[in-house]
Amino acid sequence: MDHFFVLLVTIFFFLTASFANAENDYICAQSDNLFCGKNTTFSPLGKVAGAFQVYNYSFVFGSAQRMSKRVIFLDLSGKLIGIYAVPEAAIAIQGSCVIFPFEARTGNSICLKQGELPHVTWLDGEHFELYQ
Fold first, then answer.
1. What's the per-residue H, E or C state across the chain?
2. For the chain, what are the domain ranges?
């Protein structure tokens, strides 16, 4: 019985990991600006305004182990809508805004405007542009 349970748990984790990798590969295939591999992490944050799925993305690279961070927006069918290079991962969703761990006075959110992602946003006093 114990061996059977261990086998079931192992199969479950394998299938879950395989599905997650397939989903990550699907996202990466939609943009030349995303790199997928063993040093890539996708973390789902949730849905913003019921219109977009939001993911934190990180990619560790180089001998110095530098990290590239992005926030990725997909429509509800999984189609890539846009990407922002960001200094830190997003921490929450509030209404139509994705929130970052910065002070509001220097910019701490990416907010939809009339249901659309802004082409330019400010986070922690820096300017970031939407791209694909």
1. CHHHHHHHHHHHHHHHHHHHHHHHHHHHCCCCCCCCCCCEEEEEEEEECCCEEEEEEEEEECCCCEEEEEEEEEECCCCEEEEEECCCCCCEEECCEEECCCCHHHCEEEECECCECCCEEEECCEEEECEC
2. 2-129
Question: CB of 130 within 8 A of CB of 84?
Answer: yes
How does pLDDT run across 44-75, given as a tens digit for each residue? 999 999 999 999 999 887 777 778 899 999 99
Confidence of residue 2 (pLDDT cuts 50, 70, 90): low
Rounded to the nearest 5 degrees, what angle is found at the Cα of 74, between the Cα atoms of 107 and 128?
30
Distance CA(74)–CA(71), nearest Å, equals 10
In this prediction the pTM is 0.79
Residue pair 120/128 in contact (Cβ under 8 Å)? The answer is yes
* End-to-end CA separation in angstroms for the chain: 50
Residues 54 and 70 sit within 8 Å (Cβ to Cβ): no
